[in-house]
Amino acid sequence: MAVEFDKLKKIIEDAFPDAVFRLEDMLGDADHYGLTITSSVFEGLNRVKRHQIVYKALGSLMGNELHALSIRAYTPQENQKKES
What we know:
With 84 residues, the chain is α+β, with helices and mostly antiparallel strands. It has a single domain (5-79), classed as GMP Synthetase, Chain A, domain 3 (2-Layer Sandwich). It has three helices and three strands. Strands 1-2-3 form a three-stranded mixed sheet. The protein is globular and about 35 Å long. The N and C termini lie far apart (39 Å). The model has no long low-confidence stretch (mean pLDDT 93).
C-alpha cells in the first residue's frame, strides 16, 4: 500500500491547476504525505470543506494506496498574509 510521489503530484496538479503546493513524503515510505497547498478553489470554505475537496481529488487513493495525508490548505490571500 503506497503511492508514488510523481503520481500523487500529478493528481494534485491536474485537480488544482492554479495551485502552488509543496508535497512531502513524511516518512520516506510513500504512504504518509504532507501537503501544503494554496488555491483560489478554497475561497470562502472552512478547513473541513477544503480537506474534503482535496480528498475528492484523490479519489480511491485515500485509505488504499495512500494511508495518511496531512493537509494545510490556504487561499492566495491567506498565504500572502502568512508570508508577511
